[in-house]
Amino acid sequence: MTSQPAQQIPGIYHRKIGEIVVTAVSDGYLDGNLDVMRNVDLDAAHRILREAFRPARRTSVNAFLIYSKGRLAIVDTGSGNYLLPTAGIVQANLARAGIDPKSIDTVLLTHMHPDHSAGLTDMSNGQRLFPNAELVMHENEPKHWFDDGAMAKADERSRKLYFQAGREQVLPYKDRTRLFTGGEVFPGVTAIPSVGHTPGHTAYLVASGNDQLMIWGDTVHVPEVQTAIPEAGMAFDTDLAAAAAARKRMFDRVSADGVLIAGMHLHFPSFSRLKRRGGAYELYGEPWMHALEAS
Length: 295
What we know:
By secondary structure, the protein is α+β, with helices and mostly antiparallel strands. It has one domain: Metallo-beta-lactamase, Chain A. Helix content is 24%, strand content 31%. The strands form 5 sheets. It has a 7-stranded mixed sheet. A 5-stranded mixed sheet has the order 11-12-13-14-16, with no helix packed on it.
């Protein structure tokens, strides 16, 4: 008797950008409600999800490998064991795909929230999960999350999940951390500060030849709702108004130029295009590419 499959194949998907290969790596997903949304009518938000055949908020969590000029970087590291058990599988998916974390020489962080930086360090022993990697991020990130005054003003959950978790995760990389304000941060990769969600939130533009990919970080968390209603934000935006302004700037940029996008919370494997429709926008997921070649 033939047995049925018990699990999906590893959440790994490759996309070529010119001479650079970008690999989406799934960290799993986080389920929740829409009560964490701000600046949006929740009835309208629920209706948008229902019409998109999504009865609830399921947030994909993604990381991205970048192979460029003989080097290997990872953008974000997943959530480790800090959040729900449905996430935290970046390391498992790397192993299933035959990718040794020791071969990764650069970790590019979009920001220090736990679903992005909590996969840096094994908290059971304090060991770096990317032992040979340099940690690279915007200078405002550690400046904010290591600020005791800012931490004291936060609620208990935020102190634990954002400030304390971030500190625990990045401290083992203290002697190999490089901070930036912008510019090229890895071969073919330019940092595009997009602050508001956090003080140093950063997107990364991957460019090679005529091809570009904007890895836009946490520009959206609930894609269907926030593309339809760009001012809609999240309770965990550090600056709600600045995050909305950054989102609109990013939407305008990638839609006007037709740039391929990827995001930490777009549905895996996330490669998409964004089109403007009046005052709103619409996402179009890219068809599965069977051949590993640039488009």
